[in-house]
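Throughout this chapter, every protein is written as a compact record of paired, labelled lines. An example of such a record is reproduced below:
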Amino acid sequence: MPKRSSAPIITAICAVLLLVLSAVQLFSSIGDDARAGQWVGIGLQALIGAVLLIVTVRQLVERNVRST
């Protein structure tokens, strides 16, 4: 049986951490006088994390389906 790569799992963990970081930045900047550029940056960071998580989960599901 070939050894499975742990790269998708590590990528999924990093994507979740990126989303958590985006949420923390969002909630910490709500009371501030945040500029539009800051909101765009937080939004892009969250979007990248979400897309990365979706793609990684899809890869993990496909890998598990193929192995059964």
